[in-house]
Amino acid sequence: MSDVIKIRTAGVNDYTNLANFLSFEYFIHRHLDWRPSLEWLGHQPFLIAEKDNEIVATYASPPDIPPVTWVRLFACNAHLSRQDIWNRLFSNSLELFKNDVETIAALVIEKWFGKLLLANDFEFHQEIIVMKWNQRIPKGVPSDMNLIIRPMEYEDLPAVKILDNNCFPPLWQFSSDALRNAFLNSGYATIVEVDNQIIAYQISTESLSSAHLARLAVDPIVRGKSVGFIIIWDMLDYFTKNNIYHITVNTQQDNLASQSLYRKAGFFPTDEKYPVLAYHLKK
């Protein structure tokens, strides 16, 4: 048997072999995304490390909305050095980026992965915290605006994307594909309109007896006017009427305005936290 490990780009024809490899390995990082990691096959950088024609590691970080991309997949055979394999795959991947990518980010779910990244020039960017609802519907608040809350429709997505991109920095923006996948996989998705203009939206997922507020965006021009609270209240009312009381939301630890809004709606922070690390190609 050869000790030579070869690196090559992955393609759609590798789907089955990669799926088999990932089903048996322990050291796997998958980005929490609306698009499963193997659906990025055909987009680069997506690399495979092979030994004796067998997959022993893989890495993927195709950009969705430059100048930022995410580490979408990293997996390594337990018998190999994760440090060595990471160095080879990551250095090869950098050659495949176009000039429009400036930052590679990673949402760290597994501690081993965070240690690996920090040892390889990734830096702490911020922390994601998980908040849980206290199962008490908050008192509603009046609004001096002629608000209409209605279910989101597929035809709303182009306008929702414009709003979304105005509300979030590049690291957290949704592409059209991501927004469409989020909508199609939602348990409850709504928009707020004033004079036929979309000023807020939320997308929540549902799983058995729990729900998760996956996305909330409020037009900056109406922030501070209780629009965010009203759309959250409507979401809580919807799920409780369907006997769902276990509801969570994620937000950034340094986003105090967002945390204040969620606390007002009855959410409280849990001990669940996930760091976001970043590697900067241009400094």
What descriptors fit this protein?
single chain, 283 residues, alpha+beta, Aminopeptidase, 2 domains, 7 helices, 14 strands
Task: Find the count of extended strands (DSSP E, 2+ residues).
Answer: 14
* Head-to-tail CA distance between termini: 43 Å
CATH topology of the largest domain: Aminopeptidase
Q: DSSP strand (E) fraction?
A: 25-35%
Low-confidence stretches: none
- Annotated CATH architecture of the largest domain: 3-Layer(aba) Sandwich
Mean pLDDT across every amino acid position: 95
Query: How many whole angstroms does the radius of gyration measure?
Result: 21 Å
Give the number of helices.
7
Instruction: Let me know the CATH homologous superfamily of the largest domain.
Output: Gcn5-related N-acetyltransferase (GNAT)
Instruction: Just give the CATH class of the largest domain.
Output: Alpha Beta
Structural class of the helices, strands and pairings?
Answer: alpha+beta
Largest sheet: 9 strands, mixed
